[in-house]
Amino acid sequence: MAEQLSSISPEELYSLPVVTGVSVHPSGKSAAYVVTTMNREDDGYIGSIRVAALRDEGGSRIYTRGIARDLQPRWSPDGNRLLFISDRGDTRQIWLMEAGGGEPYPAPAIDGAVQSASYSPDGRMIAAIATPDAGRREVARRGWRRIDRLRYRADGAGFLDTLPQLWLIDLTAGAARLVTDGSGWIGSPAWSPDSASIAYVAEHRREADSLWRTELWIVGASPDSTARKILDLGGAIEAPAWHPDGSRIYFVGFEDPAGYAVAPLRLFSVGADGSGARCLTAGSDWICGNHVLNDFDASAAASAPVVFDDGSALVLGTSHGSAGVYSVGTDGAAGRITPRSHTIAEFSVGPGTLAATASDTSTPNEIYEASLDGSGWRRITRETDAWRKGKRLGTAARFTAPARSGPIEGWHLRGSGDAPRPLVLQIHGGPHAAYGDAFFFEFHLLAAAGIDVVFCNPRGSQSYGDAFGSAVRGDWAAPAFDDCMDALDAAIARGGVDAKRLGVAGGSYGGYLTAWTASHSDRFKAAIAMRPATNLLTLWGTSEVGRMLESELGGKPSEIEDVYKRCSPITYADKISIPILLIHSENDYRCPIEQSEQLFTALKRRGADVELLRFSGADHGLSRVGPPRLRVARLEAIVDWFRRHLA
Description:
The structure is a single chain. The two termini are about 35 Å apart. This protein is of the alpha+beta class. Among the domains are: about 110-280, 6 Propeller (Neuraminidase); about 390-645, Alpha/Beta hydrolase fold, catalytic domain (Rossmann fold), CATH 3.40.50.1820. The chain is globular. It is built from 12 helices and 39 strands. The longest helix is centred in the C-terminal third of the chain and has 19 residues, at about 630-645.
């Protein structure tokens, strides 16, 4: 008897298992990972640590369960203990458990919420990054804050009353010691092979306002050690890792003396004394990090490379809308070792083996395993099988559009039901991100509602070469708009689409380009602009990273006001004639809600069909990491809007 397939609903986001945090055991025989689901009752998240057997079909074992959110499992160097971060106490702290399982127990407590933690190679210490809340408590007590640095708040983090600090935990003594003074942004601690030093990235410039940390620091593990800065690229330094002999440090980043650009990430190495810095992947047609967007996993784009004795390294990279693991030699020669059919969010290496969390357009993250040369790629876990069973989850077909500027890559996810069907063009954010071979719940939700979904990578997108990614500099909308229209035409030519029932949607920069599209095209019947930028003049002064527009557009508003106006959708608000829904979070510091308020007022003032859906208690990351009930409500609103206007 054939399986009865059903469509999916926004409510089913509650039960979607999200697989993250892979860590291979030192023996190479198993891997720890996390399965996160939503807690409907508490409007939060539950994270369960699990361990899967590698190299055979041994299955998985649940190590932690309950109502806590357990994160980032890491094995001790001898493989006898498992470290993880959990909110099972008053604040997010480090917990430990024996490798065979059993009751978790807390490591020595440190001040603040822990963000990351890792064992020293000798297993005696733990380096951790935590942000204390003393500054925030003091502001709440006195009722005011004095601002003296340009970037004084960050989306998701809130007001920067206290910055992250580095702690060292001595497991033998059972004590914790503060290492840094909280005077700047820090992150990504990496132990030297001899356990004597920790490298970390930082940003101490008081005028700094980008998302990047530009400095590489080293501090000794002994109490009398003084931290020293060994490198400042100006652009970005993220995710350091040491050469096994301790002579060099590898990291991903880019050079930018101006300090504002968003540029392709490359693999670098530098001597442990700060000398001889060089880029190992200059001019490559792929870039470091995972830049393929999804709406269920918020793993960091940049992850630390794995460095081998001969100086070669494995690093996560993205090319043409697909992220995978690349092998890079000391001469810069590189090759992808994981299949292009899957986008990898993170990976971990053990003796002779590699394990990764990966998804494709029809399957959410699972754990996959391969040999270090990439051979034998196979799926290890089946965490999402029960959730997927009986659901109509299609595969988005990749296609190439013969755009006027050159070929543009797109994907077409066909909706359920008979043709011709309505179609929604989805536009990604960034602008220097990408869509690709990854699972996207929102797209499947629209397909289940009988709507085709088309998404593409127009000029400005990452992973298609430097010239392609920088093609929107000075003209933020028009080149990408043209490419999106050409990709849409190519998708319609594939058949099955009712060209008279088209919608357009996008978030962040995608919301910006959606508002632009609504004012520059008459072929759409409805639009949804989510957390959009609409007025670049005011975004420059109100966004946490708005000053990046100086690099993107070519100067400050006072210098090129005409460019800011020409590139702002608010300038063309009177030309928007289709129904448009604006979705925005009130705690959004990346694209402040005043951006939607301005467009809403301009449209409402002349009687246009516009609605503004405001979410309290959420920030720019609502669609991926926001409160569960708000994420579901947002999806319900999206489906309802397009059902109403594209029926």
